[in-house]
Structure formats: structure tokens, C-alpha cells
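hi!! sorry for the late reply, been swamped w classes. u asked for the two structures so here they r. pasted raw, havent cleaned anything up. first the sequence of the first protein and right below it the C-alpha cells
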Amino acid sequence: MTTSAYRGKNPFEDPLDRILAEIAISVQLPPSLHAKACQRYKTVREYLEGSTEFKDQIEHFYAQGSMAIDATISTRGTDDEYDIDIVAQLGGRYRNMTPLAILHALAAALRDYPVQKIVQQTRCVTLFYADNMHLDVTPALRDYGTTDRQSAITHAKGPLPSNNDCMVSMNAYGHAEWYKAPHTE
């Protein structure tokens, strides 16, 4: 007879819980792909820092969303497409640029990056890899004097400037830190 240190209810005793757990496990980013995703966002940062446009302009480069809280799942509930979200916190010259100009600069700096496709979106630039992983790089400007890297991210549909272009407040870093912190009930 084997004993377990686990003293709570076994979630696999209930058939519905077992099915839900199997689904969750099947769509979760496997460890090998997690390592690949981490390597990719590190490589993208190094690539940008090596460019003239972004040299000494990236203050922080960090995962946001599900990647930041180790809960990345496949995009459509399959095991073949993963969306990794990254924040590129910028400084210096980017503080005086419009949201669309920031997105254009980021897309231009990544233009020759070795991926299948690069798409400038409304709030990020997406790098599509051949293995169906894609990485969204969201440029942000830190709101200095606030907590937890509170920032503003770009929002500009393009391709031409619009009166609707703006910076949108967000705090992906603070949210991830809050989520990972122990909570008491």
C-alpha cells in the first residue's frame, strides 16, 4: 500500500473532474515548448537591442498574460498553436512618438527577423513561427512614479494616423505579480 502526503480530496475520483483535468493538461504548453518560448522572447529582445532603433531603449522585456503566470494554453484548444505575449517597455525617444509611429518602428526593426510572417497589429507586432507558435511584442511606456510597472500601450489601427490612435493604460506586470502571490481567504 502506498501512502501519499496529499490529504485533500482526489480530484480524479469524480469523472467530470477527471475529464476537465485531462482537457486542461492536453492544451497546456508542454515544458519543451515553454523553454522554446522563453528562448524565443530572449532572442527577440537581443535582436531588438542589436538594432539601431532600439539600442539602449528597452527598459524591460517581460512576459504578460498566461505566459507570465505559467498558464499558457493552445490558442484554439489544440496542441499545435501557442500565443506568447511579451511587453517591450520602452524609454527615451519613444516617449515623444505617436502610438502608430511606435508600432511602425517596432515592425520595421523586426522586418528581417527570421520567422514565417510579421504582422503589425493594433497594439502589438506579431511574429509567426513555422511551428505555429506566435509571439506578440507589445510596446509600452512606463508610467513613472506608479507601482508595478504600470504602463501605457499603443492602440493604433494604421496604416495612417487617426484621431482614434491613443495610449491605453495597463499593468500586466502588476497583475501577474498579484496572481502569483499567495492569497488568504
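now the second protein. again sequence first, C-alpha cells right under
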Amino acid sequence: MNSTTLPKLFIALLTFTSTVGCSSDSEPGGIAITIEVINETLPEDSTIYLTGNSPIAGRFWDPKGQPLVKSGENKYTTTLNLKEDFVFEYKFTLGTWDSEAITSAGRGYDNFRAKIEGDTVITHTIPAWKGMGKSQVTGQVDMHRDIKGIGLLQRNVLVWLPPGYEDSEERYPVLYMHDGQQTMDPSTSTWGKDWRIDESLDSLIRIGEIPPLIVVNIYNTADRSDEYGTGEKGDRYISFISKTLKPMIDENYRTKPGRQHTLTGGASMGGLISFRMIWEAPEVFSKAICMSSAFQYEDFDYIAMMDSLNQPEVPLSIYLDNGTDGIDETLAEGFHAMKAELDQRGISYISVFEQGAPHTEEAWGKRFPAAIKAVFRD
């Protein structure tokens, strides 16, 4: 599944042979790894962090793991010590996954992977960092940084305002989107491709296809899988949106706060949490866009869990879809099972099954206009 949480594992293998002699920084009987980063784009006060799969880089995949020290013009360095040979997987960030190193094409790197067999110097030239490019969002947006939730990692929230917001006193429905860095801005999206829902909504609103609405793009964190799942952190995430974020949005923007005007949406695990929110918090949310949703995968089965949950007794508007390529082929069984479950319960929904569609931001963005129109019509 496309995500910006833990990096992909076991992708690129870089094998480095030992340097001649022992580094002066190595411990007796140990191995010293010196990692250098060359970057010409960072401000003087920037700090580059090394994160990876070993305690030598701090907590496991902590984006603010081991800081590198500026060791020359445009050069940052750290030296780490190992007691034995090790396959080290790692990435670089500026302190968060929203600011990880990216290629010149704007794509995130696969994990760097080094087989360390002796004292080693590894040098990387990093051309760019996520989030430091110029925003490419269509319309007016406000960025709220480092929003706190009880028992959750801090996250950024990007609020998109509809055309004409500043020129009226009107109040608006609100759509809460998960994986918010993927939905509107290619400069923050993991693969350099976003859903383009800002362009879609701007056009649909201007031609009168949907009512004007506010979109709250909720960035994910390194705990994405847990926060969008069914465990304790998933419960906390729903509570955070319902009891912390939504009141903040209602207080600071001209919203229609009632459940009938409160929507949520996402894809993959974001589709699962969107469904959870209207099913388990129907007093807050009434409409959900659930794309390529992870209702069933491997040993996980949310549909089986629904038997232990109270069925909402209020009207719901549910949009479900799925493709057939890549991960969507695996998730299709859960898509059809969810439809059967809702049919058995007598709950209406809108569904789209698109042959040939992959599990990507571009595919979800293509289906988004029909999805948002469907939940407003239903």
C-alpha cells in the first residue's frame, strides 16, 4: 500500500567493502561506519537525521534519530560503531517523515541498505527534501503544525477553503481526509503524485456540481498503520478527530458542525479508518469515501469484527470502490465481502469496481469527483 509511514524494506542493497586500516573512531574489536551526506539546498541552521533499523541510529525508524554534524561546506557526517557485521537499512530526514530525503524527481527513496563488513565510509548526495518545494495547491489553505492528540504522535493539518470563502458569511460542510499530505500537494506526497482533490473540488464547486465545502487534510505519522487500524491507537485517532480536531476546526472556521454535514475519506488503511469513523462514531460523521479499503488483508478481518459492534441507527452515506491491479487485487475480496455484509444488513451504499485500476494516488484522484458527488447526492 502506498503510504508515508515506515519505509519499504529490503529494496536496494549497497555492499561496501572495508576501508584500509581501522577508523580512529571505532571501538576495539568493533566496526566504524562513517556516513556522509552532501546537500547544497539546506539553510545553514538545518539538521539532517539518520534513521534506520538499528539502535545505532536511535529508536527503530524514528525520523529524528541520529543527528549528523556539519563537517564542511554542504557536508554532514556521523560515525557509528557496531560490534559485529550487520545489514543496516536507513534513510535521512530533517526530523520528520514529512521532511525525508527525496530524489530530484520528487520521489521518496527506497531504503538505503548497506552490508557492513568492516570500517566503512558511505557518502550520499541528496538533492531535495520533502516539503521544501513550492506548494502546488490550488486555492486558499491554512497549515496547522504539530497538532497534539492524546497518546498519538503530533501531526500537521492542512485546511483547504472553498472558492469565495473570504467573500461570504456562509457556513460549510467539512470533509476530513486521511493521509492528508497525499491528497492535494505533490511536493509533500510520497511519490510526487497527489490525488489532486483541490483541483477537482475547485472545478466541481464552481460549476455547481457539489456544495462548497472545507477540507481538513490530516497528515499521517510514523504510526499510520496503528492509527488507521482497529487497535487502541485507532480508537485514539478517531477520538482525536472527534474531540480535539473537529472542535478546533469548528471554532476557527465557518463550518456546519452537525453530523449530516461532516464527511470523512481516505484510501487503503485510510479507507478502513473512514468506514470505522461513520460506523463507530455516527453521532459525529454521516458520510464516508472508502477507496481501495483494507477491510480484509492477511489475517485481518474488520467485517468479522462488525458483529461485535452496534449498527448505527442513523442515516449513512457510504461510497466504496476498488481496483483490480497490484494491491487492489488482494483487497478486492474485502471490498466484495463488505458489500455483501451491508446488503445483509439492509444498508445502502454506492460502489465502483474499476477493472485495471491500481493502488495509487492517481487512481484514487481519478475516482474522487464521482465519489464526492455520490455521497452528497445519497
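hope this helps!! also noticed smth abt the second:
Residues 14-129 form a domain with the Immunoglobulin-like fold (CATH 2.60.40.10).
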